[in-house]
Amino acid sequence: MARLHSKKKGKSGSRKPPSRAVPPWVEMSGLEVEELAVKLAKQGVSNTLIGQTMRDTYGIPSITNITGKSLLQILREAGIKQDYPEDLLNLIKRATNVRKHLKANKRDIHNRVKLGHIESKIKRLVRYYRNAGRLPAGWAYDPDKAALLVK
Q1: How far apart are CA 58 and CA 33, in angstroms?
Q2: Rounded (5°) CA angle 43-122-142
Q3: pTM (two decimals)
Q4: How many CB atoms lie under 10 A from the CB of residue 9?
């Protein structure tokens, strides 16, 4: 299948291992993994960095396989609520940086097109999260308000 905003074709780069069993070399229990995830989240670490830290530092290949819950479920049970989904905020930051670049470089047509692509992704994600109930029903993407959101 072709990519969304390019002419390239191909498969995605990574896949989860098919086995759901906990590898024998993992030293931490599910409860210890949950406590560590909550501790990192309270320190202000993002969800992706929590997963990377668990993988690289503590040798935990999959939080879900060990605990039986996703990272978001663990954080919600601990009372740590995130206002906006992390992937949406990252796209909004990217769009804000491109808008800032375009103010300084008005003739950069390539990045003007790419800004349209980024904002298209944002609008699709907003629609998904509104339907899923993770964003309020009346929430809409506005570049000026979104810039204040990520600052």
Answers
A1: 9
A2: 90
A3: 0.82
A4: 8
